[in-house]
Amino acid sequence: MKAGLGLGSNVGDRLRHLQQARDFLQSLSAQRWLRASPVFETEPVDCPPGAGPFLNAVVEIEYDQTPRQLLAAILAYELAHGRDRSGGVNAPRPVDLDILYFGDQQLAEPDLIIPHPRLTQRRFVLLPLASIEPDLILAGTGQSVAARLRELPAGGGAVTLWQADW
């Protein structure tokens, strides 16, 4: 099953954090299959005052287990790599991993919603995703990633290409 994941970092060596997370996510794929977007630098959205800019990217992996197993793996990774969830929602963090989609599955559980509930509202996710899956129809929306990106209102934080190869 193809799973799309958002990656972000706004603390420390941001690019290194993304590279390590990308390599970890690729290791979860039995086939070691991964597609990665370019890296984009983005203004923080809904973060505390003084939060630094993020580096964001999207990867897609082939994953043979369940969404819940993927969530457990990424939460353990975040914790092991300095993510402190006690700082509140949207606090600065060295690594942030989000399941964006999991094939065409839809889940609505208290701690796991697929597709990601704010995916279609975030330019910093849609722009990298559109670079690897522009024609992907997001489950429950009936829209492609590219179409949703075109319709997204301006604002919500500037997004600029930071590094194409990483």
Question: How many distinct folded domains?
Answer: 1
Structural class: alpha+beta
Low-pLDDT residue spans: none
> Roughly how many Å apart are the termini?
24 Å
Q: Based on DSSP secondary structure assignment, what is the total number of beta strands?
A: 8
The number of helical runs is 4
Question: Brief description of this entry?
Answer:
The protein is built from four helices and eight strands; from the N terminus they run βαβββαβββααβ. The chain is of the alpha+beta class.
Mind sketching the topology for me?
Layout: E1 2-9, H1 14-28, E2 34-36, E3 39-42, E4 54-62, H2 67-80, E5 96-102, E6 107-109, E7 112-114, H3 123-132, H4 145-151, E8 159-163
Antiparallel strand pairs: 1-4, 1-5, 2-4, 3-4, 3-8, 6-7
Helix pairs in contact: 3-4
Commentary on this structure:
The protein has 166 residues and is an alpha+beta fold. It has one domain: Alpha-Beta Plaits. Helix content is 28%, strand content 25%. The protein has four helices and eight strands; from the N terminus they run βαβββαβββααβ. β6 and β7 form a beta hairpin. α3 packs antiparallel against α4. It is globular, with a radius of gyration of 15 Å. The model has no long low-confidence stretch (mean pLDDT 91).
